Amino acid sequence: MQEKWGKSKKWTVMPSVLLVAAMAVTGCGGGNNDKGSNASPSVSASSSESAAPSESAAPQESESAAPAEKVKLEFWAQKFEDTTDAWFKKWTTEFNKANDNVEVKLTIVPGDAWAQKLKAAQAAGKAPDIMTMNYGNIANAAKLGQIQALNDLMDPAVFDDLYDNVRDFVTVGDKIYAYPKLVEPSAVLYYRKDLFQEAGLDPEKPPTTWAEVLEYGKELTKKGVFGFTTAQNAADLGWSSWGLQYNASGHLAVTDDWSSADVNNGAYENVLNFYQQAYQSGIMPKQQLAGYADIKPFGEGKVAMAVCGSWAIGQLRNSYKDILDKVGVAPMASIDGDQTKPTATLGGWTLVVDGKSQHAKEAASYISYLLAGDTGIMIDFFKGAQFSKFSARKSVDEAMKSDVDASKDAWRALIAEKVIPYSKAEPIYPWDISFALSTAIESAMKGTSVDKALAKAEKDINDFIAKSKLAGTNPKQ
């Protein structure tokens, strides 16, 4: 997984830790892109339609005039895969080479030190001008004035280049507070085509409904091989089940104004019933073979179908090269077979401008260059990630159709076209709410009645809302 999600408090930490752990497993390989490597950076770069102007296009100082004082910007990026760090360093260096009046100093901060270091810097009035931020933190940061709106700092065209669902992730009210770098869907179905054939199933027709997942799982469960695996403990279920909650109900566990739980209903009964039946039918292992974010049991042939995030592509391509021709990739099945309904949420990362930066325009120009300008720069990043991460920009996806490596990657195309457009944002309410619901799912899997499990989840969520005075505090309302 990519850079996932150094968040505040319980909710904001848990998925982040899981994703960073998964990144250590996947360790994506590097790659270069001819177009990206020739991009000509400029502080004025902001258009997604064309490469940035050349350095020679910058205004020239007269011989008698004193040189303008260079604006120095601090940019903090969380520590992720080595390929991501190298990409940040490469393109920051290119930007600095082409700009005489602006210099960006890049600092890579380890994930376990991020929150403390940033808090201390903010308290001392020394926060970085530019920083990485996950989607889940944007609304609260905007509400607190910790980040600046970008609408007046960047060319409006760069926001039109974003996919509508992702643009909403970075919008609070009528202002846009971050520019997306990437998205990663939380749920994709991976299946073994060879095991499908052995079971008499069509390897080109993966299950499209939850009922088919259960049916296929029974056919695929053989001695030493389980038919299906997904999350099965509350910590993993808390975030990996969001897509299926949306799929069955069209919403998440609380009302939009965060005033009460919204789980004790038929839609959520369907969610718990699916997990309960999958676990109790014997198609899943009784003890989880690995965390949800780790595709290892599938790679080792211990399971025939596995639900995991898009980051599993990198792990499979690095660690299980001998089975790649036997692997099928599909959207996770929908409750009723309608695959235009969400089955995944999108996590990922953005760049933001600090709320107190004295050089917001220059900071935004760097963001425009790195994330919103020449499509080749972003293709260079996605190649390094082995196309296990995905673009939030229409123009980048269009450019990939002409890129030799990207255009022939069928897995990338499938996820980009059939999963991401229908995926939803992760919730921004506290993790305690997600954990209360996931505890109910795990409880139902282990034998508690669905009705009883949901009743307890409803009570626990409502108690938390009351204790935390959460009602009416949704920053996007």
UniProtKB/TrEMBL annotation:
Instruction: Respond yes or no to whether keyword Signal is given for this record.
Output: yes
Q: Pfam families, alphabetically? A: SBP_bac_1 (PF01547)
Record-linked CDD domains: PBP2_TMBP_like
Q: Does the keyword Signal apply?
A: yes
**Source taxon at top rank:** Bacteria
InterPro entries annotated for this entry?
Bact_solute-bd_prot1, SBP
Which positions carry the signal peptide feature in this UniProt record? Answer: 1-26
Show the segment(s) annotated as Disordered. Answer: 29-67
Low complexity bias located where?
39-67
What is this protein's name? Answer: Carbohydrate ABC transporter substrate-binding protein (CUT1 family)
* Native species: Cohnella phaseoli
